[in-house]
Write a structure and sequence with these properties.
The complex is a heterodimer of chains A (329) and B (268).
Chain A lengths: L1 H21 L10 H5 L5 H35 L12 H14 L9 H23 L3 H25 L6 H9 L7 H20 L1 H6 L4 H6 L4 H23 L5 H13 L3 H25 L8 H19 L2 H4 L1
Helix pairs in contact in A: 1-3, 1-13, 3-8, 3-11, 3-12, 3-13, 4-5, 4-6, 4-11, 5-6, 5-11, 8-11, 12-13
Chain B lengths: L3 E10 L2 E11 L3 E7 L5 H8 L7 E6 L2 E2 L5 H7 E4 L11 H6 L14 H13 L15 H14 L4 E5 L7 H18 L2 E5 L3 H7 L2 E6 L2 E6 L1 H4 L2 H8 L1 E6 L6 E7 L2 H8 L1
Parallel strand pairs in B: 3-8, 3-9, 6-7, 7-8
Antiparallel strand pairs in B: 1-2, 1-4, 4-5, 9-10, 11-12
Helix pairs in contact in B: 4-5
The chains are: A mainly alpha (329), B alpha/beta (268).
Chain lengths: 329, 268
């Protein structure tokens, strides 16, 4: 069953990626692509394919996978169906750290500065949430902690903008906070990808113990789960994956929430077994989302994060109501 | 055969002492019941013996080895612990929830070896759950859920079992079944079983040994007949006790609470 889901998701992801490469202001015919790229082909087509569409598609897929797997892991670790990097303030913390590096002039010193800062912000946020998770009871309290963290990170970002020696460009700020994969090049991907892969590998290494956390920490300990190790690995893994995703695509919320819920109907509620399907579903969501904003018929191109929030926020509400967290705390 | 022992255990949370200088040992093939009023330190003692609770002083040992220093999987193969706080329902079937107990043996609900399957089936049968094995745990009653968690602890097949208040949600038939099963596991399979109970009558009937705790200390330790006496129970619980010996074990009959002033003058 799970194997089938993984196969189906992979197939749909491939189809979505091909569509994403083909669809845009200039429609690229996939069938004749080889001929168009050939010796007598149109150099503009090659530019569109290799410099615009392919990096953009890859960036959407990679960021979506990172956010999807991070959401599934956070939901498992915190035993909270509403946990995800965006809602819990991890993405905002990563973006704030990245903004600080950019606007205090550290970014030009090294290509790694922004992703490293983004990772640092994400790691600090996940570590803080895990500590808070140990001290709070009830699903709603931890979500409130996440919302507070998110608001604090947003305020810090505004503060950096005020203090920054360089005049802050509003469109840059919007790019970070609204999230986008437009205008990404292969260098951006090459910098973020190793961190995201490392994060995914870490998370997949705790698949089995993650499944037992549903019993509560005491029972998981009793059955042989090394709680400290699982917590550390999930904090590091989600920090690396989310930090990498934010460095690549800015803040895109709700993917980490929706992707695990999408696949749970097919693979069940075992948190460990949700990881890989959630990564594929996250990638699929962002690639499809990015196609939608490109063909969006009204006005300027919508930001990917805005679309994600437009679709994700009502779903968040639905899931919250279903679990009774709003009425019963 | 596993010998569980604890030397000079002391645990504090803030200014409160949960355990104070407790030294105790549990032998194989015996069912030991820990009784005591709320907050006496019973659950804390089990948490220490399972390696979960950090100690301020002292040491908990399994066959002479420090439990807190054992590798988690190795510890979990030897010591089973069913804590008091358990999730109300899991979105999985009863069989899959019980199969989680096989983690330390390498089994998962989706990949069970022959030994894993046998352990899960035996546990389901022992806890009277075989007929509802494929139901979702969300459809279970409180008592059925409690039996499911007990089955999960059983499926782990550990020589030591620490069971914290397993009877609270159970009806009389399943209370008796559970106690019979625990006594049987100890005697027939040589397991070391420690169970925290509020039902002193069932402790007196089924346990080979009763430990009475109060304010983080062991107040009395002996056979049911040695511990279930009016003087000791008055001291430990603050209740006046009658003992009905006609049933073959010292069946307690709780008569009336002793008011604290009277209790003070009695003990002090």
């Amino acid at each position: 069953m799970r194997g089938n889901v993984i196969l189906w998701l992979t197939a749909w992801l491939l189809i979505a990626c091909l569509a994403s490469i083909a669809i845009g202001p200039v429609l690229l015919p996939l069938a004749g692509l080889a001929r168009l790229l050939g010796e007598h082909g149109d150099p503009a087509i090659a530019t569109i394919l290799f410099d615009i569409r392919l990096p953009r598609t890859l960036a959407a897929a990679i960021a979506g996978a990172a956010l999807g797997i991070s959401g599934a892991a956070m939901q498992g670790l915190l035993r909270n169906p509403l946990a995800e990097p965006g809602v819990m303030g991890v993405s905002a913390s990563a973006a704030t750290a990245a903004t600080a590096v950019i606007y205090f002039g550290i970014a030009p010193l090294a290509a790694w500065a922004v992703p490293i800062a983004s990772l640092g912000g994400a790691l600090m946020a996940t570590a803080f949430l895990t500590l808070a998770g140990l001290r709070t009871r009830g699903i709603a309290t931890l979500i409130l902690v996440g919302i507070a963290l998110s608001a604090f990170a947003g305020a810090l970002m505004a503060l950096f903008v005020n203090l920054a020696p360089n005049p802050f460009s509003l469109s840059d700020l919007i790019n970070w906070t609204a999230g986008s994969v437009a205008n990404r090049d292969t260098d951006d991907i090459a910098i973020a990808l190793p961190f995201i892969l490392a994060g995914c590998a870490l998370l997949l290494s705790v698949q089995r113990p993650l499944a037992l956390l549903v019993l509560g920490e005491e029972s998981a300990h009793a059955l042989g789960v090394d709680l400290m190790r699982v917590r550390t690995v999930v904090v590091l893994g989600t920090g690396l994956a989310t930090g990498g995703a934010v460095a690549l695509a800015g803040m895109i919320g709700f993917v980490g929430l929706v992707a695990p819920h999408m696949v749970r109907a097919f693979v069940g509620h075992d948190a460990g077994r949700t990881l890989l399907p959630a990564a594929l579903a996250g990638a699929l969501l962002l690639v499809v989302g990015d196609i939608i904003i490109r063909v969006w018929p009204w006005g300027n191109e919508l930001h990917l994060g805005t679309l994600a929030a437009l679709v994700g926020a009502p779903l968040f509400l639905l899931i919250a109501l279903k679990h009774g967290t709003i009425r019963h705390g | 055969m596993a010998e569980l022992s604890a030397n000079n255990l002391t645990v504090s949370v803030g200014p409160k002492r949960l355990l104070e200088d407790v030294t105790i040992a549990f032998a194989p093939a015996k069912l030991a019941a820990i009784i005591g009023e709320n907050g006496a330190g019973k659950s804390t003692l089990l948490r220490v013996l399972s390696g979960y609770q950090k100690l301020d002083a002292g040491q908990a040992l399994l066959d002479g080895r420090d439990i807190s220093a054992m590798r988690p999987v190795e510890r979990a193969r030897s010591i089973g612990w069913l804590p008091q706080a358990l999730p109300s329902a899991l979105p999985v079937t009863v069989r899959d929830a019980v199969a989680l107990g096989r983690f330390a043996h390498g089994g998962t609900p989706h990949r069970l070896g022959e030994a894993d399957t046998r352990a899960v089936d035996d546990a389901l049968l022992a806890c009277d759950l075989a007929e509802m094995a494929d139901r979702s745990t969300t459809s279970l009653s409180g008592g059925e859920l409690a039996r499911m968690h007990l089955a999960r602890a059983l499926a782990a097949s550990t020589p030591v079992m620490l069971v914290d208040e397993p009877l609270a949600a159970l009806d009389p038939r399943h209370r008796l079944n559970t106690m019979e099963m625990l006594a049987d596991l100890a005697v027939r399979q040589g397991r070391t079983i420690v169970v925290v109970l509020h039902d002193v009558g069932l402790a007196a009937r089924f346990a080979h040994r009763i430990i009475l705790m109060r304010q983080g200390k062991v107040m009395a330790d002996g056979t049911p007949r040695e511990v279930v006496t009016p003087a000791i129970i008055a001291d430990g619980f603050g209740v006046e006790l009658g003992v009905d010996d006609s049933v073959g074990w010292p069946q307690p009959v709780f008569l009336a609470p002793i008011n604290s002033a009277a209790a003070e003058s009695q003990t002090g």
